[in-house]
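Predict structure. Chain length: 290.
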Amino acid sequence: MSTHFDTGSPASSSHVSQIRYYTSLAVFLFSAISLIVPSGYSLGAVMLLLGSPVLLIKRPALGLDRRDLAIMLAMAAYAVVGIAEAWWDGQGWSGVDKPIRFVLAIPAMLLVMVYPPRLSWLWSGLVIGAIGAGSWAGWQKLVVGVDRATGYTYVIQFGNLSMLLGILCLAGLGWAYAQRHRHAWLTFLAIGALFGILGSLFSGSRGGWVGIPFILLVLYRGYGRHLPLRLKVAAAALVLGGPRWSIQYLRPAYSLVSSRRSRILSDMLKVRAVPVRSVRASRCGRAPLG
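Prediction complete.
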């Protein structure tokens, strides 16, 4: 994706700077309060959507390529299919709400492409969001005494999103290493990654852990050849050893994940033991992946 905007005059440069500050703030809030504030993930997205009319006023060059158009077409097609399904089933507005968000995301994406946010704001939002999610999950589990940390969302969604924030912090290590204050940024992102993973542990969600090997493979292919061996070893130790070390002090959360992992294996064995005719007759014979 390419970004194009005119910076030929001081007035134009000031205008671009102001809008980039706006998109930076929106992207920061999108991650920073996504799991610790009710509907916190909506604020940043709504800000980007409300800011997108500036594209109609200023009419900057979008510089879209085939990949950009393909992504937008896929989002629009998904929305059309979802809306058609909701209309066919008579779901009303409740069924249209989710697919229409993919259409509304297109102008927000265009705004970010033309006026890209500062990367320091992006990564800071991810780290703060991960630390907030992990801290709050620990409070709910260890202090309040809930069975599974939920935040303000459904327990599975909370755990998987917390894991996502932590993994995205790992994705920022390559950027952090190229910064002037690399040690501070590397430490900041590493802490965010650890807290994001802990938030998933406290929620007891196991679905997000299935993709960890594939995510690590993608990260290694992207950064493995460019980062020094010492940093790669430290990142691997954080992912593999950080949670294990923390489990010694946070065993209740680990016990919850372990018990639920055993249960899903038991459910899978039961499903395999069900005759084919019984499976065809009922759709209840499946293992929950939460």
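Summary: Residues 119-144 form the longest helix (26 residues).
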